[in-house]
From TrEMBL:
Entry-linked Pfam families: 3D (PF06725)
Highest taxon of the lineage: Bacteria
InterPro entries: 3D_dom, RlpA-like_sf
Keywords associated with the record: Signal
Name of the protein: 3D domain-containing protein
Recorded GO CC terms: outer membrane
């Protein structure tokens, strides 16, 4: 009986080690978060000198609009921006780089109110993130317990599921995610995800990668690669 008990104890230890290894392979020491957003920029060329103006170019090289350097840098850094020209709103999205210059496109706010991620996947505030697409695939889903039950600024209560819809130059490695928070940056006190620590890359937040039917249901709830109907209706009102 003593030998049998020892065997059972050994098997239990092996199973525990395997479980820990499986957990570490999907979660590691927790995800490393940052936040990105879509800035709204008041078009005012008089707030900077003519030498500090930059053209926002289309893929064909056509001038879409002209911005001050600082505003241009924000559009490029965040990957998209909303330009307010005396009440006329135009949404721009980074498209590509050609001849060393960033190129942008005008986005259809009826189809994708917050702009596009990768492969024209619509950005979904508080429910989407950018990741390293050498490790993750477009449409992969992660589950974050910290988000469950949290009320987002748009009124939605989070279910903890985040869909990968985008990539970013500084988003590299397993467990590294950049969370999209609509028009609110990480400094805004109304940004629930920022208050929960998702704007600080020093934080390590528990998560797991979701597969199979669980992931498929999460994508369906959010309307991936588009957006769920209620979000589109809200933006068109």
């Amino acid at each position: 009986m003593k030998i049998f008990s020892q065997i059972l104890a050994l098997l239990g230890a092996v199973l525990l080690l395997n479980a820990c290894a499986a957990s570490k392979s999907s979660e590691g020491s927790g995800l490393t978060p940052t936040i990105y957003y879509k800035p709204t920029i008041q078009l005012d060329k008089n707030k900077c000198s003519s030498a500090s103006l930059r053209d926002l170019l289309s893929p064909e090289g056509r001038v879409l609009t002209t911005l001050c350097d600082s505003d241009y840098a924000q559009c490029l850094l965040q990957g998209s921006c909303l330009i307010d020209d005396q009440g006329l709103l135009t949404s721009y999205n980074y498209h590509s780089t050609k001849d060393g210059l960033a190129r942008f496109i005008v986005t259809d706010t009826k189809a994708c109110p917050f702009g596009y991620g990768v492969s024209n996947a619509c950005l979904d505030p508080y429910f989407s993130a950018a990741a390293d697409l050498k490790i993750y695939k477009l449409g992969d889903v992660i589950y974050i317990p910290r988000l469950v039950g949290a009320k987002m600024p748009n009124g939605e209560v989070h279910d903890g599921y985040i869909v990968i819809r985008d990539a970013g130059g500084g988003v590299k490695g397993a467990g590294r995610f950049d969370f999209f928070t609509g028009y609110l940056d990480h400094r805004n006190k109304k940004n629930t995800m920022a208050r929960l620590g998702f704007g600080d890359p020093k934080n390590r937040i528990e998560y797991r990668v979701v597969r199979g039917e669980e992931a498929a249901r999460a994508r369906e709830r959010r309307g991936f690669p588009g957006l769920k109907k209620s979000i589109l209706e809200e933006q068109q009102e």
